[in-house]
């Protein structure tokens, strides 16, 4: 997968907002990796802010919706991982400022 496609996928994922925090999952640092195979399956490796996050299924639905807007994407595979665990250190400067995190 080339960098342009990776940027397109990450750009689409910036439209997926974590309902609890009101910031997109990319700036929150929840997305660890994105990839796409030759068959057009976009693979997203990510975590959630907490293991018991009730918004997980909703966020996965939003990811699928966002990525299916890209013509190259034929299917979406979201892999939720807990290692490494998410921490506020993963957030971009933008997300930290928006949430008032130091």
From TrEMBL:
Transmembrane region(s): none
InterPro entries the record matches: Fe-S_Maturation_MIP18, FSCA_dom_sf, MIP18-like
MIP18 family-like domain span: 6-79
Cited SUPFAM superfamilies: Fe-S cluster assembly (FSCA) domain-like
Taxonomy, superkingdom: Bacteria
PANTHER family from the UniProt entry: FE-S PROTEIN MATURATION AUXILIARY FACTOR YITW
UniProt protein name: Metal-sulfur cluster assembly factor
Organism: Kurthia gibsonii
